[in-house]
Design a protein that fits this description.
This protein is α+β, with helices and mostly antiparallel strands. The chain has 2 domains: 46 residues; 85 residues, no CATH class. Helix content is 25%, strand content 28%. A 4-stranded antiparallel sheet has the order 4-1-6-7, with no helix packed on it. A hairpin with a 2-residue loop joins strand 2 and strand 3. The chain is elongated. It starts with 14 loop residues before the first helix and ends with a strand. Keywords: Membrane, Transmembrane, Transmembrane helix.
Length: 162
């Protein structure tokens, strides 16, 4: 089977043949455009070419750091109930230590979806920790949550914003 992409006809043939020439020309342009697109993608896959055209900065972007937030932070107040302050009890936000109970009342800055845990694994006695107050943008259901911590890590609350 023989395929002719650019088969030109004589001038004395019908108008239908003029449409065929135009269709063949458009088909050829589409094939050439596709091949050019594939060639450009292959060339841009080479790191040295990307650096020459300085395309690495724009296309890759910069990952967010811990200090870069796309929304506002809230604040919660944690209170140790019934005992003295115990610096061996730690406040964890998403598994990272952010503060120790050096005072009975501690303020912690939080973001949407943060999990607040209390780490009492280094203390010898049990403690009760309560979410005493929350900022205005945090759901009020988070306030008043109590956790009993002995020699373990206890989840206190998951932060939800309005």
């Amino acid at each position: 089977m023989k395929i002719n992409f650019f088969r030109l006809k004589k001038r004395n043939e019908s108008k239908k043949d003029k449409h065929t020439i135009f269709e063949n020309l458009l088909f050829g342009i589409c094939i050439l455009s596709f091949l050019l697109l594939v060639a450009i993608q292959i060339v841009l896959g080479v790191p040295s070419v990307r650096e020459t055209f300085k395309l690495t900065d724009k296309s890759l972007g910069v990952p967010l750091d811990k200090d870069d937030y796309l929304y506002k932070q809230g604040q919660i107040t944690l209170k140790m109930i019934g005992t003295e302050a115990d610096p061996t009890v730690q406040i964890l936000v998403n598994g990272d230590t952010v503060a120790m109970f050096e005072n009975l009342i501690m303020n912690v800055k939080v973001n949407e979806g943060d999990v607040i845990e209390i780490d009492g694994s280094h203390c010898l006695t049990g403690h009760m920790v309560k979410v005493d107050a929350v900022s205005q943008n945090i759901n009020s259901k988070c306030a008043g949550t109590v956790a009993k911590v002995e020699s373990n890590i206890q989840k206190l609350v998951k932060i939800k914003f309005y």
